[in-house]
Structure formats: C-alpha cells, structure tokens
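::Encoded backbone::
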Amino acid sequence: AECGSGAFIGIIVAAVVWYTFASFATRTYLTYLRSHNDRGNLPPSVTPFLWTPLTTIVFPICALVAGGAAAWFGIGGGMVLNSLLLESEIVPAAVSATGGVTTMMTALQSAAIFIVDGQLQWDYALVLLAAGFIGTAIGQLVLMKKIREWKAQYLIIAALLVILVGSMVTQLAMGIYQTVIVADQGGSLGFVPVSYTHLTLPTKRIV
C-alpha cells in the first residue's frame, strides 16, 4: 500500500483493532485462570503469577510503553519488560529468558526492516551477531551453571541491572553524538510525518 493512501491507513487501523481485541481476549482468559485458581481447580505451575483485574490492565499498558520506547528511542523492549516481570515476582531465571527472547524477536524484526530497505551494515551486523552468540554461550554454559551451584539468583538481577543501565547510558551517549553530527552538518532535528517516503535518508556511515 502506498504511504498515506486509504489502504495504508486501513492497515494501521486494522492492526490497532486486532491488538486491542487480542488484549481483551487475553485479559478475559487470564481472569478465567485466576477464578479457577482461587477455587483450587488448577495446579500452581499453570499460573505462576496470579493475575488480578488491575494487573491485567496495568501490565499490558506498561508493555505498550516498553514497545513504544523500543521503537522511538532504540532501546530493547525486552530490557524494559525485565523490570515488569521482576515486579510480578517471577523467578529471575525466567525473567532473564523471557527478556532475552523478547529482545531477540525485536532485533530480528529490526534487522529484517533494514535488510528490506537495503540499509543494513553487514560488517557491523555480523560482528554483533557473533558477539551475541558468544555472550549467550558463556552466560548459559558457564555463568548460569555457577549461579545454580551457588544458588545465587541475585546475580541474575545484578546482571539485568548492569545491562539495563549500560544500555541506557550507551543510547544516551549515541543520541547526543548523532545529534551533534546532524546539527554540525546543518540537518533538521525536527520530527517527520509517518509518511516519510519522500525524504532522502542519509547513507553516509558515521565512524
């Protein structure tokens, strides 16, 4: 669909309607599980976190904010959700795994968009991909093994905190650096409309 056309707007509206429906359906299902759990009809493993009418509204809103932050500011939505999951009293190991999967899916989606647009810098991408695999292997095969032996779940929380703070500092520094570069080249720092296909995106690599 052409950007700004009726079909383009229709797709956006359809996506909003679908996600709204899915959210309400999920909330209904979680409320159903909670009612059966209160009657003792379900084992605790089925509902590790007891959802309430309030949390079924507040947590999806927080997830929506996390997704928006990931799209607008370039931070990983999975990292933001880690704090939310910890607040849900889910065990740190499950929080780390869930956040990692969420971050991976977000990264794959972003990479696919850059590949389609022809803007993916393959040398950087391959180096970072290799670093991710190596870091994951070390974390799962070495660090997680030691954490289980020492029964030191707090180390997972500490690692999540270091990753979150480090990512925020890195994103802030990169944002300031790129802003200075754009301003120095006389570029615009203003917002652009949703339909930006008429703009010419810079292709020069910033080293």
